[in-house]
Amino acid sequence: MTEFLVEATGLYHIYRERDVETVALRGARLALRPGSWTSLTGPSGSGKSTLLQILAGLLTPTAGAVLVDGDDMTRMTPDERARCRRRRIGVVLQRDNLHPGLDVAGNIALPLRLDGQPAGAIRDRVGTLLDEVGLADRRHRWPARLSGGEAQRAAVAVAVAARPAVLLADEPTGELDERSTSAVLDLLEAARAAHGTAILTVTHNPAVAERAGRSLVMRDGVIGDD
Ligand SMILES: Nc1ncnc2c1ncn2[C@@H]1O[C@H](COP(=O)(O)OP(=O)(O)O)[C@@H](O)[C@H]1O
Ligand SMILES: [Mg+2]
Known about the structure:
Layout lengths: L5 E12 L2 E13 L4 E5 L6 H8 L7 E6 L2 E2 L5 H11 E4 L11 H11 L4 H14 L15 H14 L4 E5 L7 H18 L2 E5 L3 H6 L2 E6 L2 E2 L3
Parallel strand pairs: 3-8, 3-9, 6-7, 7-8
Antiparallel strand pairs: 1-2, 1-4, 4-5, 9-10
Helix pairs in contact: 3-4, 3-5, 5-6
The chain binds adenosine-5'-diphosphate and magnesium ion.
GO molecular function, one term: ATP binding
Keywords: ATP-binding, Nucleotide-binding
InterPro entries: AAA+_ATPase (IPR003593), ABC_transporter-like_ATP-bd (IPR003439), ABC_transporter-like_CS (IPR017871), ABC_transpr_LolD-like (IPR015854), P-loop_NTPase (IPR027417)
């Protein structure tokens, strides 16, 4: 057994658009321990979002492996990968995290319903999370009618709802003011402390990087040392 919850090695990713090839990752590696918080920074275009989508199982790398609890996600069938993501991984992308056909409460409840949790437990958990991200009065809003910051806070609540083993977040505080930023960071820290969730945050915000125990920098598709 490995001491790492997530272990990605030898990651290459090439985007192909007609005759143009962009090499976004060139042999990136990253390992996350349970209960750790890692921050990833780096210049725009260095491959951070590509890496996060690959770790989340949303994008298959051109080469390399992503072990989650020892199982290689890149070798799973689409069904197996979907199950692995649902059970173990929470993701906050830079946009489009919410299901447009569900209100805020429905979005937060969705991962819990897919997990087969009982209605009463779901109601309690959704209520607690709405309070924690300050969206209790927005519970019946449609995603299209939320501000950028509200949508981002809702996305974080969705991502932590099912108490994932791994939480991956791409600029989770990009549109937030200072107060909402600290509410979101407190929620991530609570997930880490209570469930040993391993957190990876891609960020330009020093307040986010400050919460992390480890800071990594990505350049030209490779991750350097702290
Ligand atoms: N869907 C895509 N199609 C083609 N090229 C892409 C796509 N997404 C990202 N890229 C390119 O891959 C490189 C890495 O992008 P990205 O992972 O988004 O970096 P970062 O998040 O660090 O800004 C960039 O050169 C970017 O233009
Ligand atoms: Mg990005």
